[in-house]
Every structure is written in C-alpha cells, then in structure tokens.
Design a protein that fits this description.
The protein has about 600 residues and is of the alpha+beta class. The protein has seven helices and 33 strands. It has three domains: about 190 residues, no CATH class; about 150 residues, Regulator of chromosome condensation 1/beta-lactamase-inhibitor protein II (Methylamine Dehydrogenase, Chain H); about 160 residues, 7 Propeller (Methylamine Dehydrogenase, Chain H). The N and C termini lie far apart (about 95 Å).
C-alpha cells in the first residue's frame, strides 16, 4: 500500500513538471517606461481600461480621455462627474463623458467622439495640459481656453517645429520647458506620430511630479477696461433685469427682449433645442419679468401671460406634467421620455398674471387680483401647505392681498400690500427669518414690516431685505461669512447690516449690495468674511451667480465665484476671481 501511494505521488510530481500550467500575462511595457508606470499606479493615474494592457501600443481617444480624467482628479482633489446629456452618438463611455463635462476634450464633430481613433503626440500634450488648467485656473473652460495663456520661458525649438500645429505649440512648449515631454530623438518632436499608452501615462506622471500643488503662472488675456469706459450690450440698449438660475442666465433688455445663455440640457433657455449657449441668444419679445430656476425658466410678458420652459420634473412648468406621470403626454410641445418631461420652447401657462418667482423646482404666481398661487415641488412646504404627495400639478392658492412674490431654493416669500413680509417652506439655514431652523412644512409666517424689496434666488438659501428707510437686513445661510456680520454662523432672524441700499444679491460664496450713491460693496470668500468692502462705483444692480465652482461657458462663465452687474449706463459686466484671496477683478465682457 505504501509503495502504491509513493508511486502515485511521484507520478503527479512528474506530470506537473512536464505539463506547464498557463502563465498569467504581465503588462507589456518598454524598459524606460517601467519607473514611470510604477508611479502612475501609485498616483492612481492608470484607468481601468488600461489595466494589464500592452502599454507600448498607440493610445486611443477614449483611453486618453480616461487618463486625462485621472490626472484632473489627482490634481484637483475631486471626483469628476459625467455629463448628464451625452452629445455623442458613437460612445456612452462614462470616462469620455467625464472628460467632456470637465472640458478636457470635445468631439470630432457635433455628434461624434471617434473613441477608437488614435491620438498623436501634440494632441496628447494639449489634452493633458488642459487637465492642469481645469484643476488650477478658476473660470477656465475649453471654449474659453484662448482667454488664458500660460507663462513660461520659450524653449529651444525642435527641428520639426514647423510641423507642430499653431494651436498645439503653447502646450507643447510649456510641457517641454517644464520637463513633462521631450522629443523623439535628434531634436525632433514628431507631433503627428501616434502617442503610446506609456507615453501618455509618463506625461501625466511628470505633471504630478513637477507641477502638482504649485501656483500656475498664467495670464488672463481679457483685459480690464480703462477707467470711465464701458461696453454696452449689443446696440447699447440698456438692461432692465437679470435672473440667474443654477447654471443658466436670463436677461431682459429695456426694449422688452429676452436673452438667455448657459446650460440648456433640459431646454431651460427656450431656444427650441438642448444646446448650451456660450453667448446670449434672443428668445422672446414684449417681456416684463423673468425668473430662472434650477433647470427651468418662467417668463411674464407685458400682456400678463405666463410662459415656462425647461425641466418639468415636479410639475413646475404648470402644464399638468411631471416626470413619470404626464397628463398631456407630449401634447403642446412637451418632450416626454420614459422618465423625464421637459420643454425646449416657451409654453403659455395662463393669463392674468402680474408677478412670478421660481425656486429650484417650484413656481409662485401672483394674479392680477392680488392672490398668490403655486405649483411644482412641495416636499418641504414650498407652496405654503402640506400636500398629498411631493409634486403639485394643479395650481393651488396660497394667500391673498399680495404685492410681490419671491422664491429661494426651497422656500417662498411674499410682500403684502401693507408692507409686511411673509415666508414659508424649507428653513434648515434660518432662511425664513423666523428665529428657528425647523427644516420643513413651515406655514406662511409674518416676519417683518415696512418692506420695500426682497432679494432671493433659486439656488440660494439666504434672504436679503431692503426696508422703506433703505436699510439692508439679512438672514439665512452664512457660508464664507457672505452675510457680512463678521462670522460664519447662520442668521435666523433679520439682522440690519447696511443703510442707504438700493439693490442686493446673495450668491453661494459671496454677497453684494449697491448703495444710493451707486457704490458696490461685497463680502464672502474674497475678503475672508471680514464684513463688506467697497469694490466699485457706477453700479446700478448686482446679481451673484449661485453655481459655485461650476464654470460652463465662454461668453459668460457660469459660476466659479462670479457675479454679473448692471452699471448705471445699462451696460453688463462680469466680475470673477483670479485666484484665492484676491480681490474681484472687473473685465470687459459685453453680454
């Protein structure tokens, strides 16, 4: 028996020594690239699509997009988010959509990305330099890339410099002088040669090694105007009103024309499509007032008719539809998918309206008789009452004797004819001014008297009030100390902070007010919440953009610590930061 067992074991040993088990394939890479790729793994720069790949092979556009996203996330310290709307018909790769959302890449056409097309060396240098810009230049966008230039000492030219495309030269030169990318030998750059996977990752590693955390030396080529000069909008007809939503902006000119720009993924610009606009586009005429919400818009015309367009997720368009439940199911221009409802063109809701205000996803309407009505999202009592279900599709009455109506992100406000201010809805930051932070289902409550004007917006949880004696009162969310009381504590009851005020606005990270002498004061991220400081003269109104760190467009960057202002001559200006702890700078940028 022992002999048989010994013979069996010996046979198995001989068998496994003769028949080799399959080997696990190791990633293929060049000897020069091994140290760089080890760092790439450690820096989490290698995307899943390149795990255990042959790194000597040329890299595709889709693969490179994934590398650029990893680099951006490493530099910026934040996770990239894929674009909600996919503009490409030939890919749904989430990494491509992340790169597109950040602004690292665009398609090869309006509807195609060409994910399997190979990338060349000058394209690789340019795309990874964009990751650096996106992470470190506030307000940078792909569309506005030409508005920023990186400062660097000009390197010696490659012998094939004339073969490098003009658009690629700044990135190639910058990468070369910072030891990020070198030539291919013999002082040649070979810009049109295909970049390999290991070359792309090596560039990313060197950017991290040489430039991460360092101050990026760049110029904003959009210059500030000379004192006393201004750029009026188009034909120098002044601006009457501007309303900023989550990521789009509406503006009414003195001639009653409505103009819109910004994100348009749900038709919130009313242009008849879902294409983003980087410059203002004319939408309607004969407009009295506009109100921009989360991803939808409301327009009041001079004849008292109310029009809406954009997302109808919770019935906020007033057309009887909501996501997943559509009474009209595509009639009258509503676009209905299996889960979404939206309108890309203005839709007439009703007549007899004298005022309108919208929040993130609800609408408040004042009728000619002074009655106030609402429809849309009502989870925390945005419509002034506890409803059966969160979405209200039919217009419901809130109160009477209303003079004007306003809306914040999840709360409503109304000034009655006697000058009293009433608030209701969400109150997690004290934005109702009722002395508490009770989150939801707060019924309409009288807060103040002698109120002249109220300033709130669909993407903010702070409230500014100007009383008849021109005093400014504030309450609500005090992030970055933007309310100007010298602290970062939320304010739950109205607090008087300034006098002789004619206009005000609260953004996500800063707030502003304008005095009767047309002086602009601001407070928040740019002055270390030390109270209001003077910024400019000759200002009539200020609108703080509420989408913090969300740069989206070229003509008017939507977000990233910026504001729009109307000067006393009716011209529109953009204010934006040029880095942390720096004063706002004004630059010439007609609407």
């Amino acid at each position: 028996m022992r002999n048989r067992l010994f013979s069996l074991c010996l046979s198995l040993i001989i068998f496994f020594s003769v028949i080799a088990l399959p080997a696990i394939a190791a990633p293929v890479m060049s000897d020069w690239a091994k140290p760089e790729l080890e760092k790439a793994q450690a820096y989490i720069l290698v995307p899943n699509v390149l795990k255990d790949a042959d790194f000597t092979k040329p890299i595709t556009r889709a693969e490179f997009a994934a590398v650029s996203v990893k680099l951006y996330e490493n530099l910026a310290g934040k996770t990239a988010v894929a674009a909600v709307q996919n503009p490409f018909s030939d890919t749904s790769d989430p990494e491509v959509l992340k790169a597109y959302s950040i602004g690292l890449t665009a398609g090869t056409s309006a509807a195609t990305f060409s994910p399997d097309t190979l990338l060349n060396r000058e394209q690789a240098a340019t795309m990874l330099t964009r990751s650096l810009k996106a992470a470190y230049i506030p307000g940078w966008t792909l569309a506005g890339d030409n508005d920023y230039s990186l400062n660097f000492k000009q390197p010696e030219k490659f012998d094939d410099d004339t073969q490098i495309s003009e658009w690629a030269k700044p990135s190639v030169y910058y990468a070369n002088v910072n030891n990020i990318i070198s030539g291919t030998g013999g002082n040649m750059f070979s810009p049109q040669s295909s970049a390999t996977r290991e070359q792309a990752l090596a560039i990313a590693v060197r950017i991290v090694d040489n430039l991460k955390g360092k101050s990026l030396d760049y110029n904003d080529v959009v210059q500030s105007p000379e004192p006393g000069t201004s750029v009026a909008w188009n034909d120098r007809i002044g601006v009457k009103q501007i309303s900023s939503g989550s990521d789009h902006t509406l503006c009414v000119k003195d001639d009653g024309s409505l103009w819109a720009w910004g994100e348009n993924n749900w038709g919130q610009l009313g242009t008849g499509d879902t294409d983003t606009r980087v410059t203002p586009e004319k939408i309607m005429v004969d407009v009295l007032k506009v109100s921009a919400g989360g991803a939808f818009s409301a327009v009041l015309k001079n004849d008292g008719s109310l029009w809406t367009f954009g997302s109808g997720s919770d019935g906020q368009l007033g057309d009887g539809n909501k996501d997943g439940q559509s009474a009209q199911y595509g009639s009258d221009g509503a676009i209905v998918t299996s889960t979404k409802v939206y309108r890309i063109s203005p839709y007439k809701v009703m007549d007899g309206v004298s005022d309108v205000a919208v929040g993130l996803s609800f609408t408040l309407v004042k009728k000619n008789d002074g009655s106030l009505w609402g429809f849309g999202y009502n989870m925390v009592g945005q419509l002034g009452f506890v409803s059966q279900g969160w979405s209200v599709l039919e217009s419901v009455k809130i109160m009477d004797d209303v003079k004007s109506v306003f809306a914040g992100a999840d709360f409503g406000l109304a000034v009655k004819n006697d000058g009293s201010l009433w608030t209701w809805g969400g109150n997690s930051y004290g934005q109702l001014g009722n002395g508490s932070t009770s989150y939801d289902k707060n019924p309409p409550t009288r807060i103040m008297d002698n109120v002249k004007q109220v300033f709130a917006s669909a993407d903010s949880s702070a409230t500014f009030v100007i009383t008849n004696d021109a005093n400014l009162w504030v309450f609500g969310y005090n992030s970055y100390g933007k309310l100007g009381d010298g602290s970062k504590e939320n304010i739950t009851t109205p607090k008087n902070l300034a006098e002789n005020v004619i206009h005000a606005s609260a953004g996500d990270a800063a707030s502003y007010y304008v005095t009767g002498n047309n002086e602009l004061f601001g407070c928040g991220w740019f002055n270390s919440h030390d109270g209001y400081t003077k910024i400019a003269d000759g200002v009539a109104a200020i609108i703080a953009d509420n989408r913090f760190e969300y740069p989206r467009t070229d003509g008017f960057p939507i977000g990233d610590k910026m504001a729009l202002l109307i000067k006393t001559d009716g011209s529109v200006w953009t204010w934006t930061n040029k880095g942390s702890n720096q004063q706002l700078s004004i630059f010439k940028q007609p609407a």
